[in-house]
Design brief:
Belongs to the DNA mismatch repair MutS family. MutS2 subfamily. This protein has 6 domains: 180 residues, MutS, DNA mismatch repair protein, Chain A, domain 3 (Orthogonal Bundle), CATH 1.10.1420.10; 77 residues, no CATH class; 200 residues, P-loop containing nucleotide triphosphate hydrolases (Rossmann fold), CATH 3.40.50.300; 82 residues; 63 residues, no CATH class; 77 residues, Ribosomal Protein S8, Chain: A, domain 1 (2-Layer Sandwich), CATH 3.30.1370. A 7-stranded mixed sheet has the order 1-11-12-13-9-14-15, sandwiched between helices. Strands 19-18-17-16-20 form a 5-stranded antiparallel sheet. It is α/β, with parallel strands linked by helices. The chain contains 23 helices and 24 strands. The chain is flat and about 160 Å long.
């Protein structure tokens, strides 16, 4: 339920409906716009919103949708139902166009059944009856004319008419040439009078020719005569024309009778086309508003993120300006948001944005806000905006407000959304303030939800001390003395009356007198609010900076964790390798000693043989001592080329070089591709490469990083600095991974985020070029970045 009846006018929904009408392709769709209702059924609303969201996806990302010949055929269906009537050639042609569009539409969604499940429900149980088209096509040609061979009788009549006309014309030409030769005919040519072909004859010679005079010129000097010789032939043509007309009526009547049993199905087709046009119009307008489907909840609450007033958004879009987005939350904890702040600071726009978006949502329309916004379902929307004084009803402005407040108090409940602008104004503030506070207290007890704007200090204090009410203010730059149009929840705002008056240039004497006349307590409250605004802005800026630093710290900690894991993994491997090598050396040394002793024993301590054995032992000992040093010494780096076989240092993994890029190389290890630094690769001979490459350590980490890397980043909804920070990290990682191109999704909007990103990319040394995505896949809402 909406109250008052002109809620749509007060919140701007009437203008939204007019915009929606312009998006419709048919009169049926426009009629549905006029019949839009405030929907309170959660399941129905979710279905309608999902259908619009899916159709938006069709228009933005899918192939072109059939969007022609949305004709109103309801009057044709009604005509068909009446026995004895028949449709004209033009009627059947219109019916053919509509049926073709309907069948194309059904096929379009049948081919995409799994992509658009909610739109698919529109066709459930609907039969595609191609026989109707075949029957019409047998009689009506593609240009909408009756086929000459529709029936043998018609074909015969047309042939006889053509033959009779040819004979009549042949005889008339002979008579006309003879009349010219004799000088009986006036200057000119054959002409038509009363549907008959006649000869222009000079009046003085009219008795020299036999025939029937059909007309004469204005001067009476020329008569128009039909020769007697062709009179009978022309009568025959006329009779044949009547016969042809009777046959056409017979054919059309027969065709109408054949189509008549399908009247209910034709009604269904008409209804389908009407709904499709209406949903398509909503989706088309959603694209212009950059609107999306929020998270729908079956409870009276809302949480808007980056919401824009749709009418203001379109107006600013044309002039190249940007709408400051609105972020607001209304739930059980903060049911009523009391917005205060300076005049022209955006209080009313804030309230109307919430109300208008709620009306749009519950009419099945997408809203211009982030898709992670949350919107609930209200059963009543009560609005008090503007001056509703009435001379006829003997109502003053304040009386009109009180009349509405009476209705609000009586009708409001938990499922009600209230919108009240300048609460309590219109009478003496000394009395208006307390009455407004009492009304607010009752509404709060009824647990209503809503947005209320006010300048009254008593309402701000009441909201501050009452559960369920939450103060909010429109931020004001008191240094430059201009509104910021940003809603800040949690604290009331000052009206900045004196500051604005001073900026406007009100004389200092007037300002001093005004300050004297207001109480000290009020001055202290106002000064306190101004100070709070200033401190709040400082806290907000500090909070943003801290969040940014904390985010960077978390990323560094994550990187450090990965590096530590890599170090621990390789340290264990190196220790194990060293232990294995030491054991090999010990076994070799023991074996050498045992062999030397055996040789000495075998030589029976022969001096010369003992000396040789000792020398051999010393030589082997020196080799064993130098072997670890050689193993630890890095081989001189050899230049690599594509196709070389390489081994990852400190691992057993081998692979083939596929691509070289600056200090990195892409190598194929088995079925995997990995990007590895050149200084970690050692060239090996083909015969040394293993039959099956194994990955471990850093190589495995690199492979994991490359396979998990997504060459697309979505920065919609981010702030400017946050966006550039994320893109910088993303580009660095992409270059390290050896990527050639990236996609940055920033959305269209007003183009501010796109320009900010493009300007930054121009300065990034690793970027080669930037261009828009193809129009069918996002256009200028997506930037394609080519890397060097």
């Amino acid at each position: 339920m909406l109250y008052p009846e002109n809620v749509g006018d007060k919140l701007g929904f009437s203008e939204i409906k007019e915009l929606l009408r312009h998006e419709c392709l048919s009169s049926m769709g426009k009629n549905l716009v006029d019949k839009m209702q405030f929907i309170t059924n959660y399941e129905l609303l979710k279905k309608l919103l999902s259908q619009t969201a899916e159709f938006k996806e069709v228009l933005v990302n899918d192939t072109p949708f059939p969007a022609s010949n949305y004709l109103d055929i309801q009057y044709l269906v009604n005509k068909i139902r009446v026995e004895g009537t028949f449709l004209s050639e033009e009627d059947f042609y219109s019916l053919t166009l509509v049926l073709t569009t309907v069948f194309q539409t059904i096929k379009y969604f049948k081919d995409r059944e799994e992509l658009y499940p909610n739109l698919q429900t529109l066709f459930e149980g609907l039969v595609v009856e191609q026989k109707i088209l075949k029957s019409i096509d047998a009689v009506i040609d593609p240009k909408g004319k009756l086929r000459p061979n529709a029936t043998p009788e018609l074909q015969k009549v047309i042939r006889e008419i053509s033959s009779a006309e040819s004979e009549s014309r042949r005889r008339l030409d002979v008579i006309f040439r003879n009349a010219i030769k004799e000088g009986w005919s006036a200057d000119g040519s054959l002409t038509i009078r009363d549907g008959r072909l006649v000869i222009p004859v000079l009046a003085e010679h009219k008795r020299k020719m036999k025939g029937f005079i059909h007309d004469e010129s204005a001067t009476g000097q020329t008569i128009y005569l039909e020769p007697a010789e062709v009179f009978e032939l022309n009568n025959k043509v006329r009779d044949l024309e009547f016969e042809k007309r009777r046959e056409i009526v017979k054919i059309l009547t027969s065709l109408t009778n054949e189509v008549r049993p399908y009247s209910p199905l034709l009604n269904s087709y008409h209804s389908l086309l009407t709904k499709i046009d209406f949903i398509r119009a909503k989706a088309s307008l959603a694209i212009k508003l950059d609107a999306s489907m929020p998270i729908l909840k079956n409870e009276p609450s809302l949480k808007l993120s980056n919401a824009r007033h749709p009418l203001l958004y379109l107006n600013f879009k044309q002039s190249g300006q940007t709408v400051v987005p609105l972020n607001i939350k209304i739930d059980d904890r903060g049911r009523v948001v009391l917005v205060s702040g300076p005049n022209a600071g955006g209080k009313s726009v804030c309230m109307k944005t919430v109300g208008l978006l709620q009306l749009m949502l519950q009419a099945g329309m997408l809203i211009p806000a982030d898709n992670f916004s949350e919107m609930g379902v209200f059963r009543r929307v009560l609005v008090d905006i503007g001056d509703d004084q009435s001379i006829e009803s003997d109502l003053s402005t304040y009386s009109a407000h009180l009349t509405k407040m009476k209705y609000f108090v009586e009708m409001a409940n938990f499922h009600t959304l209230v919108m009240i602008d300048e609460f309590g104004t219109g009478t003496d503030p000394q009395f208006g303030g307390p009455i407004a506070e009492a009304v607010l207290q009752v509404l709060n007890q009824k647990k209503v939800k809503g947005v209320i704007t006010t300048h009254y200090s008593n309402l701000k204090l009441f909201a501050n001390n009452t559960d369920g009410l939450e103060n909010a203010s429109m931020l004001f730059d008191n240094e430059h003395m201009q509104p910021m149009y940003v809603l800040q929840l949690g604290k009331p705002g000052s009206s900045y009356a004196f500051e604005i008056a001073q900026k406007i240039g009100l004389p200092e004497q007037v300002l001093k007198l005004a300050k004297i006349k207001i109480g000290d307590q009020q001055k202290k409250v106002d000064t306190l609010l101004v100070d709070l605004e200033r401190e709040k802005k400082q806290v907000y800026d500090t909070k943003v900076e801290i969040e940014k630093r904390q985010k960077r710290l978390n990323e560094l900690l994550e990187e450090n964790k990965k590096l530590k894991e890599y170090y621990d993994e390789n340290r264990k491997k190196l220790v194990n390798d060293a232990k294995q090598q030491a054991q090999d050396i010990i076994r070799g040394a023991n074996k050498l000693v045992e062999n030397t002793i055996a040789e000495i024993k075998h030589a029976k301590a022969d001096k010369e043989k003992t000396k040789q054995a000792r020398e051999k032992l010393t030589t082997e000992q020196q080799k064993l001592q130098t072997k670890p040093e050689k193993a630890a010494h890095k081989k001189e780096a050899q230049p690599l080329a594509i196709g070389d076989w390489v081994k990852l240092m400190d691992t057993d993994a081998t692979g083939k070089v596929i691509e070289l890029n600056k200090s990195n190389a892409v190598i194929a290890i088995g079925d995997l591709l990995s990007v590895v630094k050149l200084n970690r690769l050692e060239k090996i001979q083909n015969k040394d490469q293993q039959k099956q490459s194994k990955t471990s350590g850093y190589a495995e980490y690199q492979i994991q990083q490359r396979t998990s890397f997504n060459p697309e980043i979505d920065v919609r909804g981010m702030r400017g600095e946050e966006t550039l920070y994320e893109i910088e990290k993303y580009l660095d990682r992409a270059l390290m991974m050896g990527m050639n191109s990236l996609r940055i999704i920033h959305g269209r909007g007003d183009g501010i985020l796109r320009k900010l990103i493009r300007d930054y990319l121009k300065k990034y040394t690793g970027v080669d070029s930037v261009e828009d995505e193809h129009p069918d896949r996002g256009g200028d809402g997506i930037s394609i970045v080519k890397l060097k």
